[in-house]
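Weekly modeling sync, notes
Attendees: S.R. (lead), two postdocs, one rotation student

Agenda item 3: backlog of single-chain predictions. S.R. asked that every request posted to the team notebook include the full sequence so nobody has to chase files. The rotation student volunteered to paste the first one in as an example of the format we agreed on. Action items at the bottom.

Example entry:
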Amino acid sequence: MAAVDPTPPAAAPAPPRYSLPPVRLPAEDILFCVDVDLEASAEMKSASAPSSGSASASSASPQPQPPAGAGAARPPVRRMDAVRQALLLFVHSKLAMWPDHRFAFASLGETVSMVKKDFSSDVGSAMEAIHSLSASESRYAMADLTQLFKIAYQEGKRAESQGRLLRVVLIYCRSSTKPHHQWPVKPKNFTLDIIYLHDKPTADNCPQKVYDALVDALEHVSQYEGYILETGQGLARVFFRQMCILLSHPLQRCIQDDLDIPKQVAKKTLAIEAAQNEDGTPVSSQQ
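Predicted structure, as returned to the notebook:
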């Protein structure tokens, strides 16, 4: 019988450690430009609003009526209401991440007008500027972004000299008016993000053409990866989710084609159920 070697086998070499040296990202100066056309006063849908099928079913059976004097129905939520709320949430969330971020505000009618020109981290001045935003009582014949890009270019040079990064966030609401600009190709020194709130396509509007014009504008001026997000659903919660995506720093972004957030809860549930059906072993969603 062969002798047993008492020496234990040599341990496998430990894999090399991967380390990423810490890098401080530049603080952002963020200029919000909000469309104040009449379409910014369009009503948004309620997530709890009954569908036509449920409405017909409810009409077939009597429903309890609210007691007298219970109060009037809630006023409708309009796009501008949702915009103001989303901007407040954005400012508070961004400052919670890093209190050195700064904000300024502008409105878009036929051209751009500054609402709060000086960039500041002061929450009070940001709230004052946000609450001052209101939709016009008329439609504008055009939407010229030239002045917005001119302002952004000058502010981008100033931000760069201070070791900061400038970003413009445009919130656009018109379903038929294509924005235009006369901006020469210059060194790109700011990032452009766009959220497009529009009506559903009909014979009387052209949101696809407007969207294409917005994409062209973004690609023309954006220094880093800019996102363009759109919705015609009219749901405020969809708009709020999109604003949360824009909290991401431009230097930490994947390209928009690879963007897969926010995750849909329904899809996650289906994936868990599929995994359970494959091996019969429950899969926990908790880590």
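Discussion: group reviewed the output briefly. Residues 25 and 275 are 39 Å apart (CA to CA).
Action items: rotation student to repeat for the remaining queue; S.R. to check formatting next week.
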